Structures are given as structure tokens and as C-alpha cells.
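Supplementary Note 2. Why include the ligand at all?

Several targets in our set were suspected to adopt different conformations when bound, so apo predictions alone were not considered sufficient. For every target with a known small-molecule partner we therefore ran a joint prediction. The input for FE2/S2 (inorganic) cluster is given below.
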Amino acid sequence: MTDTRTLSITVNGTQYTREIETRRTLADFLRLDLKLTGTHLGCEHGVCGACTVRVEGQAVRSCLMLAVQANGKSVATVEGLARDGNLSPLQNQFWEHHGLQCGFCTPGVLMTMEEFLEENPNPTEADVRDALSGNICRCTGYQSIVDAVLATAAQARGE
Amino acid sequence: MKPSPFTYHAPATPAELADLLGTLEDARVIAGGQSLMPMMNFRFVQPAHLIDLNTVQGLDYVERRGDVLEIGAATRQRFLQRSGEIAQSMPILQEALSHVGHRQTRARGTIGGSLCHFDPSAELVNMAALHDATLTLTSAAGDREVSFAEFGVGYLTTSVQPEEFLSAVRLAVWPRHHGHGFEEFAFRHGDFAICAVSCLMTLDPGGTIERLAIAVSGVTETPVRLTQWEADLRGARPDAETAAALASAAAGIEAMSDAYVSAAYRTHLARVLTRRAFLKAAERAKEKASA
Ligand code: FES
Ligand code: FES
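The joint prediction is reproduced in C-alpha cell form.
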């Protein structure tokens, strides 16, 4: 017997209502039901951070949350960052600073750093590295990611 | 890597939650899910019923009551880390929280979830030991209070019964002039510590130890308080010599070993980290005494 519930959720500003299995993770719901495959799954057990999305503004691991737990909530994914075909300032700096190579970890890193920069407009390099601790990148190397985040903060401050 | 099927329950009140726990067979409560979800994804845990604590009202709060800080079991780690009350009355808890997972896991993870998971080296378990926690376990029959010693049974095991849930934790607040030290070693920042040592200390006007608490975790299956030493060192100078004696005591705890970390290495860490945590607490206590 399959246990299902009706989920009503806002993702990147669009409202969706779907009948889902209660064991569906939020990550799988986004990828398989909404076909928003920008959210990546690396480990599915909370270690890599690739699946990070924002729920009610907070960066969380979507592989460790059930979709039903996001009922009535507002979710932001990497697909919502660019506006009208223009990259967000953070995405732009990733491009400028070579903040991604294969790009697998990038959606999770971007969603984490978007939240971090809203909370810390004036971060030090150590702050950025601390905030990045929950995201594993296996190819770019963290230095260029850190550079991109610091450059975004500097840009926002008008420097 | 997907959970096996279960029936999901979303109670709105503690009473509804208690009723569900009292009637359902093979039920698990999910709080922040930062430990349970990985275990369900791996299918190490396959409950028939999953009861969501996140929909229950009234289980997330921080309240100061005299010398006690009461924290609702479902209070998020992120909230605790940013609480002004905790920054003031229990700074060591905030320092410890900065080592708990990562910002994304602290946004979901709760204090009660971490305590019920009872990982031997979890920072919040160490904090509960250090602050002589008492815990409220709730069931349809009512509440019962247990001490931390009664709560922790062994490796990943607590005395919470199938029909009960943890509803609140109370931690003893130390006088304002206390100093604190928290030291841990983990392979990567945010991992569970291999060993973590915490220390609280107050000094009397002559500069000798008035009150001391030390909790060592990661060495055995549950955190160890150096109770006898805490009592014996009253009136001692908080200097390097005392630190060395205490460090030797910590190294005397019989250490467990596993595939990654030998007993000898845990013992080494217990010694080094105890000395550091003690000296840090002493330094801060002295600063406060002269302020
Ligand atoms: S896929 Fe969620 S943390 Fe790795
Ligand atoms: S860009 Fe390849 S894993 Fe980070």
C-alpha cells in the first residue's frame, strides 16, 4: 500500500500541487516530479551538499528532507537564480573566477553562498571557508570558489 | 538510496504525538532528520510509521528559569547558535555548536534529535553531560524526568521508551564569572569529533579553583565526567601543573577503538585536549575575575 499526500509547494515563485508518495525526498520531488534537475544528488546521505536548496530562505540538504515536510513552504533552487537569461551577480563571479569546472557541486554551492552573503555582506576569507564546509567540490579546488564569493561581496558593497 | 515505504504522520500537538507513539507499532519520530534520513536512505532503518516532530507545536523554545536554561527538544541548532540568551549565559554551547555539522544541517538539526541519536562524540551530547542535563520524556501517561546519566545507556542508545519522546532539556547555567574551554579534533571540520573535551570553571577571590566541570567524549561510548577530579581540585591553582594532572586522568579513561581510530590515539587526544580545554577555561575565568 502506498502512502501518499497532497503537497502544495512554491518553487522559485511558481505554485505546484502534486499527489506524492510520503517517502519522496524533496530532492527527488524537485528532480523527478518537477523536472528541475539543476539540484544535484551526489551522496544522498547528507555529506556532499550538492543537493542544497533554500526552504523558506534557509539553505538545507534536500536529500535529508521529505517533500511532504516542505508542504506549504517556499523553496528556491538554482534554476531561480538567473533572471531573464542574465546570471545573478554570484553566478557571474563564478564565471569570472573559474569557480566551477565540471559544475556538479555548483548548484549546492551557489544556494549555500546566496544565503551566506545575505547574512554576511562583509565576510572574511575565513568566514567564506567556514560557510563552505558543508559543500564538497572534487575538481575546481576551493580557492576559486572562495575568490568568486569574496568578489561578489565586494561588488555588492560597490568596491 | 531512497527510504523504504512508511506511513507518514503529522501530529499538531504533543498530546497527538504521544497518542500516536502509544498506539503505533514500529514507529520512529523524525526531528531534523539529519541522522535519521541518512539511515533511512541507506535502509539501515525501515520504520513502518514515521511521525513528524516538525508539525508539533510548542516544542521549540529557549527559556531561562533562574539557574536553568530550558530548551524545547525541537529547537533547531541554528536557532541556538544565534540565541542572545545562550550567547550570554552559556557561551560554550555556542562554541560547541559551531562544530556541529554545517550551516545546512544546523538549519534542520535539533538539539533533541542530536541527544536522542546519542552519538558518543556528538558535541551536544557532550554539552548535556557537562551541564548536568535533566531531560523530560513525555508519553500519553505523562512526563518523567531523567538525569543525563539515566538518559544515556550506551552506544547510540538512550533510555527513551518506544511510547515516549524527548520534549525538553534543562541545562545548569553557571555563574556569570565562569570561564569555558571547548576543544575537539575531527578529521574534517563539521565531522563528528574523534574526541571532544569541554571545561567550565569558576575561581574564588584568591585565584584558586572554586568549581570545575570537565566532560570528555569520543573516548568511550558515552561522555565521561571527571567527577572525582572535579571535587579534588577545588582549591587548586588553575596552572600548568594542575592541567597536566587532569590530562593524565583523562588519558586514564579506558578508550574504545574502531577501524579508523585506535584506542591509543583516542587516549592521546583525550590528554592533549583536556589540557587545552582546562587552560582555556582558566584563562577566561581569570579574565573575568579581573574585569
Ligand atoms: S546529495 Fe544531499 S548532501 Fe549529498
Ligand atoms: S566543479 Fe566539479 S565538483 Fe565542484
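The interface with chain B takes residues 1-3, 5, 21-23, 25, 28, 44-46, 49, 52, 58-61, 63-66, 68-69, 112, 115-116, 130-131, 133-135 of chain A (CB under 8 Å). The radius of gyration of chain A is 16 Å. Comparable summaries for the other entries are listed in the accompanying table.
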